[in-house]
Structures are given as C-alpha cells and as structure tokens.
Amino acid sequence: MVVATAPAPLRASVDRAGSGSRLSRSALAISAVVVLIGVVLAGWAGCGFDSTWNLVWSGDVLGGHAAAAAPGAFLPTPHPGSIAWGLLIRALSFGAPLRTAWAASIEGVFVVFLAGVVVLGRRTGSWAAGWIAAVTLSALPGVAEAVTGGTVDVLFAAACVWTVVLVARAPRAALMLSSFAALMRPEGWVLVVAVAIWSWARLSVRARISAVTALILLPLLWAGVGQLLFSDPLAALHVTLNNAVTLAGRRGSTPLVHAVVSALGPAMAPLWIAVVLVVLGWRRPGPVGRRAWVVAALLAAGLAAAIAGGSVFTPRYLVAELALALPTSVSIVTNLRSRSQQLGAYAACIGVGVATIVGFHSQATTRDIDMRAQSRVLAGLASTLRVAASRCDSVAVPALSFLPVVELSAGRHRAVVVQSTTDGGASCVLRPRDALAMQGASWGPSTASALLPPPPAGMRLLARTTDWTLDGVSR
User: Fold this and answer.
1) Does residue 325 sit in helix, strand or coil?
2) Which of 418, 412, 415 is nearest to 64 (CA)?
3) What is the Cα–Cα distance from 413 to 306, expressed in whole angstroms?
4) pLDDT tens digits, residue range 395-443?
5) Domain map of the chain by residue range?
6) 21 vs 34: CA distance, rounded Å
7) Of 19, 54, 63, 201, most Cβ neighbours within 10 A?
8) What angle do CA 182, 184, 189 make, to 5 degrees?
C-alpha cells in the first residue's frame, strides 16, 4: 500500500498556520482578561459633576433654553462633544435614569479604550506591551478619576487611541474619530491636522474636502454651542478662565504652579519615565509607535498652552497622552540592543511599576470612602427632591457641588433658585446639613459658599435626611 505524504514545505506551512491560529486565540483570551482586570482596577464608571452638567445642558438644548447655571458658579467647560453625548444618552436611555445611563455608556467606552491600548501595544511591538500598558493605566489615579467621574476624558482618550491605530489602514475612519475628539477637548484639533497630513495622499477628493470642512466647522461648532447655551460664542474660554480664577484663589497659587506641582506627583511619573524610554530607543517602535508619540507630544503641548493661559489642570487631562505613550514605551524595552540601554530601560520600568503601585494604593481607600459617602448623599438628595416635586413650586439652593443633580432632577417645570440667603422668595429651601454635602465629598470642586442660614419664619420642615433638609411655606 502506498501512503501519500504532503511535501515538507507544505507541512511546515500548515504547522505554522495552526500555531499562529492558536497564538491568536490565546492572545485574544489574555487580552480579554487584561481588559477585565483594568475595569476592576479603575473602578466602576459614574456620572460626576462635569457629566451631570452635560446632561442638564443637553436637556436645555432639546428645550431651546439658555443654560441652567448660577452666575459666577464653578462650571465645567461646555464641550460640544460631551453635550452631544448627553443628547445621545437622552435618546437611548430607554427610561433608565439619565445618570445611570451615562455611567453605563462610559463603562462601555472604557472597555473600548483599553482594547485600543492593547491593540496599539501589539502594533508597536508586542501583545505584552499592550497588556502591561493597559493594566498600568487602569491603576493610575488620573485614569480612575476620569472613569469614576464619567468625564469626557475617557471619550477623548478612546477616540485618540483608536485614531492612531486606524490611521494607516482606515484613514477616513481615523479622520472621523479625530474630529469627534476635537469636539471633546480643544487640543484635539491638532489630532485632526496630524491625521489629515498623514493621510492626505491616500484620501479621495471627497475625503479631502471632508477633512477641510471639518477643520472649518470645528471652531464654528464650539462657538455655536456657546452662543446657544450662554449667548456667548466664547463661553468655553470664559468659563475656563472663571474657574481658573476661582480655584487659584482657594489654593493660593496660580494654575500654572498648581499644574507643575501636580505633574511631579506619582500620578504623572509613568509619563516622564515613558519619555526617558522613548529617548533611549526612538528608532525602535516603528511607524505606528512614532505616530503615537507625535500625537502624544502634540496633545501635551496643546494642554500645556491651555494651562499657561490659565486653564485648571488635573491629572485626568493626560489620560490620552499616557494611553499613547505607555504602549510604545513598553515595546521599546523589548527591542533595545545595547546593554546600558537595557539596564536604563529596566530601571525605568521598575519606576513605572513603583509609581503605579503607590498611586493606586494612595487613592484606593480614599476613593472607596468617597464613593460610599457620595452614594449616601445622593440617595438622601433624591428622596428630598421627590418631596420637593410634590410640595414645592420653586426651590432655593446654595451654589453647592450637587447643584447639577438638583437641576437635572427638578427639570424645567420647577424653578431652581441659586442664592446665598433664604429670603429669595422661593417656596422651598433645600439646605445641606454639613460641609460634606456642600462640597460633594470630592464629587465636584470644593466650594467657598457658606451654608444657608435657618429658613425664615413661616416655613416648616418638609423632609430631612442625614445630609439634607427641605423647608417650605406652610400650607
């Protein structure tokens, strides 16, 4: 009997294909586990101060109203992209509480973001680079702050990472994502320019026209949102400067000094170490890695310019830069050839690990305490506002951090009067009972407003929780 056998080269080819398929399945399985670990480390997504205001303002856009805001109060910058996201949440919440729907959407975006970090690591060096970067990012305080607050920084970072991943293979998709990023944060404009330059030769005439149109429309959209909500086309700039002045007075330092001090802390140590790694091996990561670092540098430069101009700084603003820098930097370690470079790179990696551990443990206990306190305060506020809905025509509140929650719960059918005294003519007065409720237990920016004094004669107690009291006119 004659047994036919395949030629040796063919057998070798089949074996390699089978091995590659098994490796691919294993890599995908490990990547899924890494993303799950990242979600656990960063904490569950929420809907904090900035995000709740975006939901309020998206309702104002739908109703054609001016923005609900107290004169001189601390407000988040009105980003067109985040308000558009609020409109999307309102359309797709399917009856769920809006803040819950927002938090769920941010959780989903964070998963997409971590997947993009893993893919970026694979494109710049290896799967391991993406895995290490994803876990490191998830444990950093700035990333956890963005996720638990449900801020626009998560959306912005996801758009930036996937833009860099897709720009070589799907330039039109990258152009759309970069335009979306530019509506989330002003420094995203440089991303649109970079993508247009890299992709110009491969874009069709229609896509080139779209790219130029996007660059023209972006500033008009920012101005249009400001005009619609605040009757001020430069509202984003003016709100940012007002916040900088307010917080600088409370901290006793300029925004630039505060930014420098914050940038030297453990939250930003991985970024500076990543810079060292890139200097050691700039030629190693390949075209995707170099694009990632160019974008990271441009975004950081744009943020630095904003801070120098008076913008407030917080570590979560650098989530996108870290997400682009870390996978590329970790991949460099596996490609270095010089013994001295390898020793320096390994020392830098140890520094990243130590900074990550310190940063995570420094925030973990405080974050858990804050989340429990916030849940209690918000639950009490919700029950108090249910009483107000049935017994009050208007509600007077101080300019507290939970003001957007009051605005969102009250809606346009009930007037919310922001004041510092109790004699403003409102039928009910909502008062936080201590500084915890006033400041939001780190939920929003601390406020210098004093607690409201006791209600005037003629009002009686309508509701009381651990953190809130509601007084109203006797009926």
Assistant:
1) helix
2) 412
3) 38
4) 877 766 777 887 787 665 456 666 555 556 677 888 777 655 555 544 5
5) 27-336, 392-473
6) 20
7) 54
8) 20
User: Angle CA(303)–CA(304)–CA(306) in degrees, nearest 5?
Assistant: 65
Other C-beta atoms lying within 10 Å of the C-beta of residue 33 = 11
Contact 157/376 with Cβ under 8 angstroms? no
Predicted confidence (pLDDT) at residue 11 exceeds the cutoff of 50: no
* Range with top average pLDDT, 102-106, 267-271, 316-320, 379-383: 102-106
Of the candidates 152, 154, 178, which has an alpha carbon nearest to the alpha carbon of residue 165?
Answer: 178
Residue type for 240, please? T
Q: Could you give the CA distance from residue 114 to residue 191 in angstroms, rounded to a whole number?
A: 20
- Whole-angstrom Cα distance, residue 452 to residue 221? 39
CB 418 within 8 A of CB 399: yes
Using CA atoms, how far apart are residues 462 and 178, in angstroms rounded to an integer? Answer: 50
The answer to whether the beta carbons of residues 332 and 280 sit under 8 Å apart is yes
Q: Which two tokens stand for residue 85?
A: 């996201």
pLDDT tens digits for range 68-91: 666 556 788 889 999 999 999 999
Single-letter code of the amino acid located at 269: A
Would you say 421 and 456 are in contact if contact means Cβ atoms under 8 Å apart? no
What confidence tens digit (pLDDT) does each residue in 113-156 have? 999 999 998 888 788 888 988 988 888 878 888 998 899 999 99
Distance in angstroms (rounded) separating the CA atoms of residues 409 and 385? 7
Torsional class of 406: left (φ above 0), alpha (ψ -120 to 50), beta (otherwise):
alpha
pLDDT digits (tens, 9 = 90+) for 202-227: 888 888 888 888 888 888 999 998 88
The pair of three-digit structure tokens given for residue 58, joined into one six-digit string: 């998206």
Handedness of CA 83, 87, 93, 96 (dihedral sign): positive
**pLDDT reading at 180 higher than 60:** yes
Whole-angstrom CA distances from 409 to 99, 282, 390, 452 are: 10, 52, 13, 21
